[in-house]
# Entry
Amino acid sequence: MKKITPLITIIREIDDPRVDRTKLHSLEDILVIAICASMCGFTGWEEFECFAIKRLDWFKKFIQLQNGVPSHDTFRRVFERLDPKQLQKALTDWVAVLDICLEGKVVAIDGKTLRSSLDKAKSLAPIHTISAWAVDERMVLGTCDVDEKTNEITKIPELLEMLELKGAIVTIDAMGCQKELADIIVRKNKADYVFALKKNQPTLHEEVRMLFKAAEYTRDIHTDYYKTVEKDHGRIETRTCICAEVGPWLGDLGLAWTGLKTVAKIISKREIKSKTTEDTRYYLSSLPLDAKSIATSVRKHWGIENTLHWSLDVVYHEDKVHIRKDNSAQNLSVIRRIAFSLAKQRTPQKMTTKRAQLLTILDQDGQHQFFLKD
# Structure
């Protein structure tokens, strides 16, 4: 496992929003308690305080707590006033210190709405966040908030600029299928991309569809083919990926996309008893002609939904936390993503998130490795 100790050093760089004369507890102590408590599934100020009281002797091994355990009101005041962007930067800086090798590995980018943050009484829309998830490493590399007046398209470039993604394969759904993002990923990040293409870009979508139609009748268009069949609980799923080199076939449309080399068509066929459904989706990619690589990248993209977002809702109860005042919800969202990444780093690849959380609760000594100082 990667060394986690630098997290404390990075936390110390965050500006404390409180006035010095009113501080009884260091920001470092408050954030470390919040992260550890979140790893165990605790979600609110009172739970953070109770958790620290029960583990006071353990916490004193690696943080100061000179004035005892912070009260729940202290946790509340700090998280309301703490700048979310600084906490988000701390997460990104921590990942950079770990120096994770992303060469050839999938980084999925997707958004998630904190449904419980909706406040109709104050006419406040729910908070929406975008995260970059390293699928194989099981880590959140970075996250940022989308405010009410913008959308994901304007915030994804900001997130990409924060990350070190050299050699990675960045996957984004149709919302992020944008020329600007392709340029940032290839030129700035020195990475590759696989973008979902839908009918929200009708001209390009139709050109790609017609390219595959033409490939059926000519050998001039180089293609590659990959097929998988999965059988589980009476269900048979067949996925067929056909890739084609862009070459001159897309003309100016293809040239407008930095690094674009291939387009892909994935046909998903599902058979359940006597019922059969079929779906066809298209993709743009800077990867060379390799149907297996593109099909695998698309499949792994759903890890951000099936692993990260599902776990945050079901195991970490993110959509049940009705804390919204000031910056609280945004800051807790980052804390949960740090906690989730830490918990995943210390458990085997195939262990479920729920079991990993249970192990974290029971194994106090094992949790030392995250925060003990050199």
Notes: Residues 6-98+325-371 form one domain. Strands lie at 106-114, 127-134, 139-146, 169-172, 192-197, 223-232, 235-245, 262-272, 275-285.
